[in-house]
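Bug: token stream looks shifted between consecutive jobs. Job 1:
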Amino acid sequence: MNLIDFLTTPSFVAGFVLTVSLFAYIFWPERNPFVQADKTRVDYLNERKDAIYENLRDLNFEFQAGKYPEADYNQQRAALEDEAARTIAEMALLTARGMKSTRTRA
């Protein structure tokens, strides 16, 4: 089989078309890549709350694994819980004032 016959086989043509299509789909530039979604303060606070909860989960896991003494654990946990409470209170205040989140939950 010579090169011309190989390049015209249906499996090669289908593979080539699939490869080009995937590259075009993955790397096709957006119309304006410099535009970012506008975030409200509620969006920022919601992301911060999620990060605090994740930090609390990590802290609990590491304490259970024996990486933290109890005094340090209690101090860090209290600080994270206070920050979470302040964040949730500010979110509630802004929501009560009518500010809405532009973020959609997946």
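Job 2, same session, no restart:
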Amino acid sequence: MAENKCAECHIRKVGGNGSAIYKPAGRINTLGFLRGMVEQCNTELNLGLFPDEVTSIAAVLNRDYYRLK
């Protein structure tokens, strides 16, 4: 995630240190939606991630920030 400058993009979008992007009230409330947001970042930033990489990133974000079931 650091390699793809995620934090820099999040800071531009939500300000502060960018961490507010992880818990907007009710915005991301399913694992499928979380994966979709990662895919959106992949597309928007032209990262060239494969589907399994998108899924892995979503899993890490869920483990570390969202804790969705």
